[in-house]
Amino acid sequence: MDDFEQKKWFAYMGDHHEGPFSLAEIKQKMASGVLTPATYVWTEGMDDWKLMPEVPVFLSLFSPRVAEIPTPVEKSPAELTPQQSSMTQEVQETQEVQETPRLYAESQADQSFSSEFLSEPLATPSSDRKWRAIFLGILLMGSTLTVAYLNGYLEPLVSHPFVVQTVQSLSERAQPYLLKLAEKYPTFAQWVSPIPYIDEVSPADYEELRSAAGAVLEKDGPKIAIVFAHGDPSTPKVYVASNLPDGAVIEVHFEGVSDTLVGQLSASATTEVVIQKKLGKSTLVTLSESQPFPRGQYDIYAVDAEKQPDLVGLSLSKLQALEVKHSAGISHPFKLFATRSVFLGGDKDSVYAERLKEFHDKLQKKATEELEEIREFATTLESELVATSSKFKSLYKSTKANPNSKKDWEAFHTEWLNFQLQMNKAFVKWTPEVLEKSFFYSELYKMIQQSQQDLERVHNTQNAFFAGDVTDQNTFDIQLGQVSSVAESSIASIKAKIEQASKIPPTPNGMPRKDGL
């Protein structure tokens, strides 16, 4: 095969090599501008890639000016092969044709070579080294700036209000375009945040918000993240990020862990956050009557609100409602999105530990006193039930009360009313709010109130007989038996609870317990 048509040459084009090509194909590619004097070539037998003008066999393909760039070792005609002799003759003929306009040819060759060399992207072994050097330079500059930043040298610059505002403004303006770019190129999404940067939260918390907001709803399902802003821990503010559609309403419930609270037995609050553009934030959260949170640990629940926009409701329709053991007062079927535990109200330091111990010591003393008071109430109620039942049985001897028995009962009834008056003076102070806030054994006090009502029902039923209000004796006997049984069971139950409470050990941090009461 003729050497001019033999496919044995490889050319480095762009960032890769192509070939093999024949000299005829290379000549065509040079004519179309695909190959230039700045192209590297190689064939079997060469030690390394070389520029085309540095290879003698390509001399005939360049203008005289370019052909002069390499200086090959000249050989006598006797030493040349037939192919080399033919190529040498072609070079001579080309030089003769172009000799007349030599100055013009030299000028054009210089411009052509310079233009091609500057415009052609060199992706060659040597250009790789150049790009590697550029990359190392950028890396060195980045490392230098990082060290300077970590040592505080750049603090006056980066903390300057103008710089901060400029960066934030540019970031906000660029974000919509970056998000569109991330949608088109998913691999780019990891570098683009769907929410603006929030300087009120820690970097770790921001990443949690960013992750929830960036989740794909159709693939990952609804995602919610709750974090707390820096500020007064006794009046917290929360940020909520979600991949739910705009307008989603998230209820955030705070429930204090009882034995960690200083000065209170319970604490709870609720706030609503509306999601817009993947993010929402609450106002400052307080307890009822604008009271700050007492210091302690709190369980946080993020749940869906009872009313949601149609699009949000459709997104949540596939989720199942969950049950969570808490007393945060959620009054509707809900779906739990996220939970977390945080310490609010102040720092969890040695002062907190001392105050918590003082509170628990006082609470233990108060619990002991309450239990003794409840026991006295239960004993009194039991005595009164025995008294009214015994008195009724002693006077109930026929289907109709005689004047003497009626007179005796009226005297007893007057004493009974005085007793009830004294009991009610104590009970009137036991409103549900007072019991929950001020009494440790609030449930036992409620049982005392219920037992008192059951006892009154027994006595009032008995009094109806002597007042002449009974029309059917059998019905009366059944009714009296029922109310008496309820009262007896009620008093027996409260006595059992008292014994149970006295045997429950305190928590490890010294707080009395009332589990199961």
List the helices and strands and how they pair.
Blueprint: E1 9-13, E2 16-21, H1 23-31, E3 40-42, E4 50-51, H2 64-67, H3 82-98, H4 102-119, H5 125-150, H6 155-158, H7 161-184, H8 203-214, H9 217-220, E5 224-228, E6 238-242, E7 249-256, E8 268-274, E9 279-281, E10 296-304, H10 310-316, E11 336-344, H11 350-395, H12 403-427, H13 432-438, H14 442-466, H15 473-503
Antiparallel strand pairs: 1-2, 1-3, 3-4, 5-6, 6-9, 7-8, 7-10, 10-11
Helix pairs in contact: 11-12, 11-14, 11-15, 12-14, 13-14, 14-15
Descriptive overview:
With 517 residues, the chain is α+β, with helices and mostly antiparallel strands. The chain has three domains: 9-123, no CATH class; 221-347, Sandwich (Immunoglobulin-like); 352-503. It has helices at 23-31, 64-67, 82-98, 102-119, 125-150, 155-158, 161-184, 203-214, 217-220, 310-316, 350-395, 403-427, 432-438, 442-466, 473-503; strands at residues 9-13, 16-21, 40-42, 50-51, 224-228, 238-242, 249-256, 268-274, 279-281, 296-304, 336-344. The strands form three sheets. The protein has a four-stranded antiparallel beta sheet. A hairpin with a 7-residue loop joins strand 3 (40-42) and strand 4 (50-51). Helix 11 (350-395) runs antiparallel to helix 12, helix 11 packs antiparallel against helix 15 and helix 12 packs antiparallel against helix 14 (442-466). It starts with 8 loop residues before the first strand and ends in a 14-residue tail after the last helix. The relative contact order is 0.05.
